[in-house]
């Protein structure tokens, strides 16, 4: 069997976003891959023929990253294939061209060009399209020589500077080329649900000020153009929305002050006449999204769907992301999928298609539980894939902690091995038994790899997941207890050669660990947080995230924020530590990594900081292929230097 190397991910085919055609004859989906030569990602459309039970490639240009089915059973996708349109886009003109292709084959033909920068779209029942347009309200006065900030937030991870930019819903009429906006220029639109002539949507109307915590909910009549406000912004925390009928909607919401509880949403029914909300079904898990971590996926897809009054949704429960169904009577089903992580899905009649990571298999499509795509079967057949060994134990605080251990790929009894402890981000995410390329690479490089879901993780309810205001306490102890348990269960691990790493919250915790213990012989802190006081004011989500996770802001209790900041304990660090950060990471800004690096350098301990240009918070999962390779090389070299 071949070793899994740093660059093995270049061979992966990332399957995502399945959906049935309106007539039910086909399933469309996207397949993406890393292109090292062009240092980017390519994506193409495929269809699965339900009658012939065959997969067929529809596009080959590498530019079909998203699509919708039209009411005429054709595939519509945006692409910049016209040189004239490309020139206008490069000159700053807001244009988006759409192409159309039949699932039965043939060439994709130009369908229409929308006079706006479109970042999302869906087909409406009447043949029109609901578009999400990115609008720059300061475009005519913006200069290249400097940026002007007059609102908060002023940037966004992955999007860059966002000051005065809004995402607006608009209805596009293909027949006459008219684009009619749903809300005013300064309204930021997020989610939507359509039923007949009704458009229910979430939005935050704001202008050159501070964006609040929660959007409002609005009802728009597609026929008359009238809008009704059902829920004012900043009155209640809400999640996903879905129109049930002409009189009510299903809304995921929290019934108390979200700022200091970190509770999960429950299911409510909203009266469309007056906006009143009534609790339908209490729920203590995520709704319409999964949180299983992996660096071996690319692309997105549907996380929820209403069909015949039943609401299908992805939810993280325990250590897995499963598809569930909420029926009309308020009953929630067990898992409708088999895999460790259902990433996206669609339902049509009696058929269910899901994009899943099942165990150590990369994402593939499953139709009614049976695998129908096989793009990545070669990985398990040709490479030395290590199966994680799961176990649970009771930590010192009385909570059950779930974790996994991966043995070295070419493990031999009686041999002593180094190990790497990997801490996930979030913290409201989970690790699972899914294929994780980087951890497989470490195992193939001769390391034990171990990881777990400490308190603060997703999938175990509010009580387990709420560490608001106590970061670095119970979660830290869980991680140390888990390390003790792993070393006890696996005596083949050399306790003098154990390293630790993690990104985002995992980077925060790595920073915290090296300031509180010397038990790890090497550390790699990635896209980290070191100081919650500064994080509040430089992160794109800082002014809202801080109160939801640290229990206060600098105006209320700066002492609490500093108490939870690793930078305070940096003078204690003696562990050789590598820092990985990106200069366009506006989620955990590079100042966080630079501050921790500067502090530990003064201790005289070995340190190194790698700042990647043009990358953001997603470097390890969606960064440019060459940068992903360099990042993994830096981390492996650092661990090898101090652990081997």
TrEMBL record:
Transmembrane segments: none annotated. Keywords: Hydrolase. Residues 435-644 form the Peptidase S9 prolyl oligopeptidase catalytic domain. Signal peptide: none annotated. It holds the Pfam family Peptidase_S9. It comes from the Bacteria. This is S9 family peptidase. It comes from Alitiscatomonas aceti.
């Amino acid at each position: 069997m071949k070793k899994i190397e740093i660059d093995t991910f270049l061979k992966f085919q990332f399957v995502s976003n399945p959906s049935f055609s309106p007539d039910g004859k086909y399933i469309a989906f996207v397949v993406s891959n890393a292109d090292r030569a062009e240092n980017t990602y390519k994506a193409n459309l495929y269809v699965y023929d339900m009658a012939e039970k065959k997969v067929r490639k529809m596009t080959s240009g590498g530019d079909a990253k998203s699509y919708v089915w039209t009411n005429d059973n054709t595939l519509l996708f945006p692409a910049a294939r016209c040189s004239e349109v490309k020139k206008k886009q490069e000159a700053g003109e807001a244009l988006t061209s759409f192409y159309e292709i039949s699932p039965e084959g043939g060439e994709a033909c130009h369908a229409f060009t929308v006079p706006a920068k479109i970042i999302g779209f869906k087909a409406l029942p009447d043949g029109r399209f609901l578009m999400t347009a990115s609008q720059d309200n300061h475009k005519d006065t913006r200069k290249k020589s400097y940026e002007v900030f007059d609102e908060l937030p002023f940037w966004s991870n992955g999007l860059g500077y966002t000051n005065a930019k809004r995402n607006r819903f608009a209805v596009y009429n293909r027949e006459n080329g008219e684009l009619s906006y749903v809300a005013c220029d300064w309204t930021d639109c997020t989610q939507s649900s359509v039923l007949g002539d009704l458009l229910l949507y979430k939005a935050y109307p704001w202008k050159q000020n501070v964006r609040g915590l929660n959007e409002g909910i609005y009802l728009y009549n597609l026929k008359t153009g009238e809008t009704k406000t059902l829920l004012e912004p900043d009155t209640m925390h809400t999640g996903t929305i879905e129109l049930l009928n002409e009189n009510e909607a299903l809304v995921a919401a929290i019934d108390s002050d979200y700022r200091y509880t970190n509770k999960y949403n429950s299911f409510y029914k909203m009266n469309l006449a007056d906006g009143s909300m009534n609790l339908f079904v209490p729920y203590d898990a995520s709704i319409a999204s999964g949180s299983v971590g992996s660096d071996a996926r690319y692309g997105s897809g549907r996380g929820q769907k209403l069909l015949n009054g039943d609401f299908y949704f992805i939810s993280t429960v325990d250590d897995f992301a499963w598809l569930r169904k909420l029926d009309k009577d308020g009953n929630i089903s067990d898992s409708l999928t088999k895999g460790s992580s259902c990433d996206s899905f669609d339902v049509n009649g009696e058929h269910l298609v899901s994009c899943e990571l099942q165990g150590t298999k990369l994402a593939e499509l499953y139709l009614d539980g049976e695998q129908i795509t096989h793009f990545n079967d070669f990985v398990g057949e040709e490479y030395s894939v290590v199966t994680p060994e799961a176990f649970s134990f009771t930590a010192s605080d009385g909570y059950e902690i779930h974790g996994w251990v991966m043995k070295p790929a070419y493990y031999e009894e009686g041999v002593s091995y180094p190990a790497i402890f990997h801490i996930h981000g979030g913290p409201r995410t989970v690790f699972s038994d899914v294929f994780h390329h980087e951890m497989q690479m470490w195992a193939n490089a001769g390391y034990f790899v171990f990881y777990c879901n400490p308190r603060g993780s997703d999938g175990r309810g509010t009580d387990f997941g709420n560490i608001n205001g106590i970061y670095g306490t119970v979660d830290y102890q869980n991680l140390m207890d888990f390390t003790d348990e792993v070393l006890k269960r696996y005596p083949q691990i050399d306790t003098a050669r154990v390293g630790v790493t993690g990104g985002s919250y995992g980077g925060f915790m790595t920073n915290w660990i090296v300031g509180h213990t010397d038990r790890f012989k090497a550390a790699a802190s990635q896209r980290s947080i070191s100081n919650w006081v500064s994080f509040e004011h430089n992160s794109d989500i800082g002014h809202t995230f801080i109160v939801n996770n640290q229990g206060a802001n600098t105006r209320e209790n700066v002492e609490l924020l500093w108490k939870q900041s690793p930078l305070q304990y940096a003078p204690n660090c003696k562990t050789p530590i590598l820092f990985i950060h990106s200069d366009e990471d506006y989620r955990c800004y590079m100042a966080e990594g630079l501050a921790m690096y500067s502090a530990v350098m003064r201790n005289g301990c070995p340190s190194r900081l790698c700042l990647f240009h043009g990358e953001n918070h997603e470097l390890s999962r969606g960064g440019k292929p060459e940068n992903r390779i360099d990042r993994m090389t830096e981390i492996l070299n650092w661990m090898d230097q101090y652990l081997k």
